[in-house]
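Sensor histidine kinase (candidate division WOR-3 bacterium), 93 aa
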Amino acid sequence: MRVLRQAEFWFIVASAAVLTIGHYAVTADAPFWHHLFRRLYYLPMVIAGFRYGLAGGLLTAAAISLAYLPHIVITRHTLPLEALEARFEIPLY
């Protein structure tokens, strides 16, 4: 429970949430922004890994992957190549 009192934890949670909301808000006709948001997802994972070790990094990666997965399903018809690329990128998280 001490983790919940740490500013770093809430920064990681907030940054992942803001990136996810931004990613879902971008329309299908803006591929640049989709790619940018996908790359920015690495920042909270790396910060969590440095701050909380391997377990923190993996837990953050799993949470981001679960948050991002519905977006892949939703956009698989409008952005088929991006959805395919994203499916292969999630295991890299």
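The two ends are 26 Å apart (CA to CA). The first helix runs from residue 7 to 25. ok done for today
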